[in-house]
């Protein structure tokens, strides 16, 4: 399968002195979609922020590699330029900065040169159409006065325009009605390709009915307790996190008694 686009080895992360992640291992290969599921407080968003290099989330052990290069101590802007993208669970407003200017600046920083204006505008219009967004959206200030659904579309819109090697989507489905969910899922599927990888963080199985993952991981109490195919998400839907966790604990207890 070659080198993973994103590899996480024994990652331990603390926030304000409290350990949240307790040894997480992941490997996302080109062309793969991984889903990370877990209850509130399990560490899902902590993993997302740690991957992107948020200074509040201190790595106390393990390492992060992007396309085979260690980025554990890299700054967020360095990670972004190398091809890592994070769609936030709670996108913030940036008054005074239009979506057009944000993407023009970001594309220049990633590519090392400014894209021709005609080419960039054509791409922006194409991706806006994919997400059923009016072109006037490009002139609006980033997330300023946006509805929850508009903010989530804006995040996915940025991803499709910037074309990162690895996209981490932190609960992009939360707050979306069924129609918006279908549109966003369609854009995610259109973005997915044999040259990139996606880590889709979610509470619920509903988005996984539209974006089919190759691997599903269950994160509980800062560690991945189960990994498998789409059937893992279906099992969670049927039994809940508590049921799966009890089974994992029984299995661990049996191994300890051997």
Indicate the CATH class.
Alpha Beta
Radius of gyration: 19 Å
The global form is globular
Sketch the major β-sheet: 6 strands, mixed
Level-2 CATH architecture: 3-Layer(aba) Sandwich
The H/E string reads EEEHEEHEEHHEHEHEEEH
Structural class label: alpha/beta
Question: Low-confidence runs (pLDDT<50, min 5 residues)?
Answer: none
Query: What amount of the residues lies in strands?
Result: 25-35%
**How do the strands line up in the largest sheet?**
6-9-10-3-11-12
Helix content: 25-40%
Distance between the termini: 34 Å
- Kindly report the average pLDDT value: 91
As for the CATH topology, it is Rossmann fold
CATH superfamily name?
Answer: P-loop containing nucleotide triphosphate hydrolases
Number of domains: 1
Report on the structure:
With 258 residues, the chain is α/β, with parallel strands linked by helices. It has a single domain (6-91, 162-256), classed as 3-Layer(aba) Sandwich (Rossmann fold), CATH 3.40.50. 38% of the residues lie in helices and 28% in strands. It is built from 7 helices and 12 strands. It has a 6-stranded mixed beta sheet, with helices on both faces. A 4-stranded antiparallel beta sheet has the order 2-1-4-5. Strands 7-8 form a two-stranded antiparallel ribbon. Helix 5 packs parallel to helix 6. The mean pLDDT is 91.
